[in-house]
Amino acid sequence: SQQGEEDPQALSIQEGENATMNCSYKTSINNLQWYRQNSGRGLVHLILIRSNEREKHSGRLRVTLDTSKKSSSLLITASRAADTASYFCATDPRGAQKLVFGQGTRLTINP
Amino acid sequence: DADVTQTPRNRITKTGKRIMLECSQTKGHDRMYWYRQDPGLGLRLIYYSFDVKDINKGEISDGYSVSRQAQAKFSLSLESAIPNQTALYFCATDSGDRPATGANVLTFGAGSRLTVL
Question: Closest-CA residue in chain B for A32?
Answer without folding.
Answer: B103
